[in-house]
Hints:
Order of helices and strands: HHH
Helix content: over 70%
Shape: elongated
Structural class: mainly alpha
Radius of gyration: 16 Å
Number of strands: 0
Largest sheet: none
Amino acid sequence: PDVKGKRILEFLLERFTFAPIFCALSLYFLTIFEGKSPDQATNNLLRMYKSVLTANWRYLTLPVFLNFNFVPPMLRVFVSNIIGFFWVIYLADKRRRAAAAAAKKEK
């Protein structure tokens, strides 16, 4: 099999299949874990999804590409977890800022 073609296919599948699903689930469950209702989580998801997915594609495409192409297979999960850790920090900060802006608007 063509290894280069397989890597490109894996990369494209990750970016256009896994990333959108991961973003949606992350936004939803971050809200649920804050103790908010499923309706609030859904509203948050609908409000922030497009900007978060766009940021995911903008900021994580290069790290994911490097991980798929240059990191040994044995270390890919570890590197993915490190990338994911920083991504969740980014999401939490983005959500915190959005909540602060919404609270400021209500006043």
